[in-house]
Structures are given as structure tokens and as C-alpha cells.
Design brief:
The protein is of the alpha/beta class. The protein is built from 15 helices and 27 strands.
């Protein structure tokens, strides 16, 4: 089967039933994005969160409309179509419309700057861009530099003059399935990843990968028609979408919550009767903290149907899960390990039956193989540290237009993850460290070289290194070790003020003034810095604003 077959099956079997619900707790009603003639169901109460709902039949019809819009513009099989939208009810129908047209979907990180958007559009040979109101200023800045991208489709009201009104145009397109035959080995999607250089790689996946993600997710979490999945993380990321694929396969409802406040999460679980919730570590910690402080009273919510909480996208502190199970003893818990190169979560999987192994990432997931090898690709003995490699139908085809990088990580069908791991006597895999220097903070990848390059522009700085410091809430925070030029004086306040020109999530959370060590070849000795500043340290940073 092809991933779009599941959507068409659901439309046929469960057409009038709810497929997607969008909840905007803080959305102003006059700014809400709406579909053309969608007849969406909205909350009647003015003090209720803004709510929109889409049935399986309308989901499929909207996907068909967008597919036919693309085909009406002469788009051919394999054309790349980028999606730059916040989580919303439009996101998934547009994604599936791209696939139904035989085109390649290119989801884009909604935190990208204008320069990053331009770089990724060019890297992936994108010909069409679909974007929303939150990105107008960023597209304004590069509109004349991306002339190869045409048309630009805008989703919302009061769009810029250079973009076409996507939703109005769809209203004139057929809601019938387009006559495009798809095969498992057809290219389907490009996702972006990046190494320590900070320059994204374009990860190409086939339809086979997407279907594999569906089967893996449903096998791991046993979604049924009665389940309701609460999805909070961004849909551009493989993690969120591939977990939602379990709902697609089972024909069950999913709720897109645009907000992470504990009260909003619990209210959505209560009012939508959610049974499965995927959280990032910071959100789980915030929820527990709100309960412990008394700010949240669990007796106000209906949570008895909530059966599964799973966490991913970053290492999970065992203490957090032990704490969670004391508050929610009836919950099943799970964690999944994966990469965008392995179509997201699930290539290694703990399993709800293995709560006694909290701290491990688990065993090979459904349909996956995993090994731990040395620098020569030879399996290490259990207990020894080596590189984790995985194999399965979810492994990427390649890094698009980057044969050298592809050859470095794909060998005889095995994906070399760059993560160091070890296996215990029971066959459970534990991550030890990463070969890469990426800092994973709150589930987001921060790339030290980008931050270092920015800081080096400050006239008082001679050298700088950015590393990750363990953090009880975010998993890691980015910290900067700064070497000041001889004869200069500098304060942390000066650096923080300079960093306000950088996106907030990329800013170093702590500054150390010290000499930056480099080896004889000129490379920064980051292991030495980690040993000095990170060893045995676990800090908590209060985020304000």
C-alpha cells in the first residue's frame, strides 16, 4: 500500500467521523485560519479555546483539491513542494495533497530564518512553496531571491501581493482523487537535518519509508479506533507526524494542540477524551511542577481514559519517569529512538512492558535491525561502547545531491547514526554519547558552529566554543566558553545583549570566560571543555519571557 491509500480507506469507511481537531487556546478568533467553504465545527462558547474539526471524508477531499491544484499548474511527478506552516488543520491535507499529485513533500522547520529558508529551498530544488501568515516577514526578505520558486501559495487571509490565495484557488478544483498512480519506490518526501556544521542536509525518503513508519508506530502503541492522540510537537518534524501515522492507520482521531501550558494540555485531554499523549521532556516536567506547586488541580480534569504517555526527541532522565509514574500510576510509558534519516521514531523502542528498563532506549523496533559496531563496522561485545547502526525499510534513500555525505552514513543498507551506545546483558540499548556536537535542547537541535560564528562577530571576542550543559528541564542548554582579546574586559551582560539579535532558542543560556583549547590541527578540544564544565553537573534554568 501507499500512505495515501490509508487516507482514502478512512474516508470511505469512517467518512463522517472526526479525523483532526485543531485547538488554539490563545488564538484570537479574527486571526484564525479557515478553509474555503469547509463548514468547520467551532466551539460555541466564547471563553472556550478556538476549535476546528475535520472529518476523514473532508480531509481526503481537501487533499484531492490541493493535488488537483498542483496538477492544474503543470507540476510533474517528482516536483518538490515545500510546506512552511505552523501546526494547523490545513497542514496534513496539504501534505497528503502533495503526495497524491505524485510530487515530493518538503516540510520546513518553522523556526528557520529567512536565510535558512532560502538555503533549504535551493538545496531541495523546491519549485512551489506553501506558507502561512506567521512567515510573511521572512518570505518578504527573500522573495526576490527565490524566483525559481513559483507559484508561492499563501494559506490565510490578507496575504502578500506576490503570493496566490491557496484556499480560494482550491475551491475551484475537483475533490476527486487525481489520476496519479503511485508506487512504494516512488520518492515521497524530503526532511531536513543537520550536523555540527549547521548546514542542513536534505533527507530523501520513498513512500515505502512512510508506510513502514505507519506499521512501526501502530505496532508499538496499539492504536485502535477508540484512541485519541494528542499531538503537540511540530508536524514538520518526523517525530510528530510519524507518531500521528498510528492514528492514520487505525482511523482514529488526533488533536493538534497549539500550546504547551500544563493547563492547556490537561484541558485538551479532558475535553477531547485523549488516550495517547506524546510529550517532550520539558513539557512533562512543567506539568509535574504545576501539579506539585498546586497551580494545577488534577481533580478538575477527567483523565481516566489517558492510557499512554510517551516521550522522545531527546534523552529522557529516568528520574522524570519515576516521578511521572508516582503521579500517574495507571499510565503506560514508552520512549522511542530515531532520526530523520530513519523516518523518525521507532527504529529502537523501549516498549510499554519494559518500564523496569527506564534509561534504556530499548531494542530494535518493529521491522528494524540494530547493531553496535566499532570503527571498522565489526560488532562490539555486549557492554562495550560503539556506534549504533540500524537497518529497515524506513532508512532514507540518500542525502539529496550529497553523495559524499550519503556514503559516510549508508553502508550495505545500514544507517550509521553517529550515536555511541552500549548493550546490556538483556539486549537493551543505552545511549552513551554522540559523535556529533549537536546540542539537543527541549527537543530542538542547536548547532554550535552557527552560534560560534555569530559570537565571533563581537569585537571583544578572540575565540569561542559552544557545548551542551546538562539541564534538568531541557535535557541540555547551550553554553558558550568565550576567550576575550588581550587587553579587553567583557561582562556576561554585554554578551547577552549582543545575542538579542539571534533567535531566542539559539542563544547561549550561560557564559563562561576562559581560554578555548585547540589541538595541533586547530580543532577545538570540546571533550576537554565538556569534562571541565559538564562533568557531574545538572542545572535548572528558569526561562522567562
Amino acid at each position: 500500500m501507499i500512505i495515501t491509500d490509508f487516507l482514502e480507506r478512512n474516508a470511505r469507511l469512517y467518512g463522517q467521523e472526526s479525523a483532526l481537531v485543531e485547538i488554539n487556546p490563545s488564538e484570537e478568533r479574527d486571526k484564525a485560519v479557515t478553509w474555503w467553504d469547509f463548514n468547520l465545527i467551532e466551539s460555541a462558547s466564547q471563553d472556550a479555546p478556538y476549535r476546528r474539526e475535520l472529518s476523514w471524508r473532508d480531509f481526503d477531499r481537501r487533499a484531492n483539491r490541493f493535488a488537483n491544484l498542483l496538477l492544474s499548474r503543470g507540476l510533474k511527478r517528482g516536483t518538490k513542494v515545500a510546506v512552511l506552516l505552523m501546526n494547523c488543520l490545513e497542514w496534513l491535507p496539504i501534505y497528503f495533497g502533495i503526495l497524491k499529485a505524485g510530487c515530493i513533500a518538503v516540510p520546513m522547520n518553522y523556526r528557520y530564518s529567512s536565510d535558512e529558508i532560502k538555503y533549504c529551498l535551493e538545496l531541495a530544488d523546491v519549485k512551489v512553496l506553501v506558507f502561512g501568515p506567521e512567515f510573511i516577514s521572512r518570505i518578504d526578505a527573500i522573495e526576490t531571491q527565490i524566483m525559481q520558486v513559483s507559484p508561492l501559495f499563501y494559506v490565510g487571509s490578507d496575504g502578500p501581493a506576490y503570493a496566490e490565495d491557496c484556499l480560494s484557488l482550491m475551491g475551484f478544483c475537483s475533490s476527486s482523487a487525481p489520476p496519479v498512480a503511485l508506487q512504494e519506490d516512488d520518492d515521497a518526501a524530503i526532511y531536513f537535518s543537520s550536523g555540527t556544521t549547521g548546514f542542513p542536509k536534505a533527507i530523501l525518503h520513498k513512500h515505502r519509508s512512510l508506510v513502514h513508519a505507519c506499521l512501526t508506530e501502530q505496532n508499538h502503541h496499539s492504536q485502535s479506533r477508540e484512541d485519541v492522540f494528542l499531538c503537540i510537537p511540530p508536524l514538520y518534524h518526523t517525530g510528530a507526524k510519524m507518531h500521528w501515522f498510528g492514528s492514520l492507520l487505525s482511523g482514529s482521531k488526533a488533536v493538534l494542540l497549539r500550546g504547551i501550558k500544563p493547563e492547556w494540555i490537561l484541558r485538551a485531554v479532558t475535553e477531547e477524551r485523549c488516550t495517547i499523549v506524546w510529550l517532550l521532556v520539558p513539557w512533562a516536567q512543567d506539568l509535574l511542577d504545576a501539579i506539585d506547586s498546586g497551580r494545577v488541580d488534577l481533580s478538575r480534569y477527567r483523565l481516566e481514559q489517558w492510557r499512554l504517555m510517551h516521550v522522545g526527541a531527546q534523552p529522557v532522565p529516568p528520574s522524570l519517569i519515576h516521578r511521572w509514574m508516582k503521579v500517574f500510576p495507571h499510565h503506560q510509558y514508552d520512549t522511542n529512538y530515531g532520526l530523520s534519516e530513519s523516518i523518525g521514531p521507532g527504529c529502537v523502542h523501549l516498549g510499554v512492558e519494559n518500564i523496569h528498563k527506564v534509561g534504556a532506549i530499548g531494542k530494535p523496533g518493529y521491522g528494524w535491525q540494530a547493531r553496535i559496531v566499532d570503527d571498522h563496522g565489526v560488532d562490539v561485545t555486549p557492554g562495550e561502547v560503539g556506534e549504533l547502526i540500524v537497518k529497515g525499510d524506513g532508512v532514507m534513500t540518500c542525502y539529496y545531491k550529497n553523495e559524499e555525505a550519503t556514503a559516510e552514513v549508508l553502508k550495505d543498507g545500514w544507517l550509521y547514526t553517529g550515536d555511541m551506545a552500549k548493550e546490556d546483558p538483556d539486549g537493551f540499548i543505552y545511549l552513551v554519547d554522540r559523535k556529533k556536537d549537536v546540542v539537543i535542547s527541549g527537543g530542538e537541535n542547536l548547532y554550535p558552529v552557527q552560534i560560534e560564528d555569530f559570537l565571533r562577530a563581537y569585537p571583544k571576542i578572540k575565540d569561542v566554543a559552544v557545548i551542551g550543559l546538562p539541564d534538568a528541564r531541557l535535557g541540555e542548554i547551550a553554553v558558550a566558553i568565550i576567550e576575550i582579546k588581550e587587553g579587553e574586559t567583557c561582562t556576561e551582560a554585554e554578551i547577552n545583549e549582543f545575542c538579542t539579535a539571534m533567535p531566542r532558542y539559539k542563544r547561549p543560556r550561560k557564559i563562561f570566560f576562559d581560554k578555548v583549547p585547540r589541538n595541533p590541527t586547530g580543532k577545538i578540544e570540546k571533550p576537554a571543555l565538556r569534562e571541565k564544565y559538564c562533568h557531574g553537573r545538572l542545572v535548572e534554568v528558569q526561562i522567562t519571557g
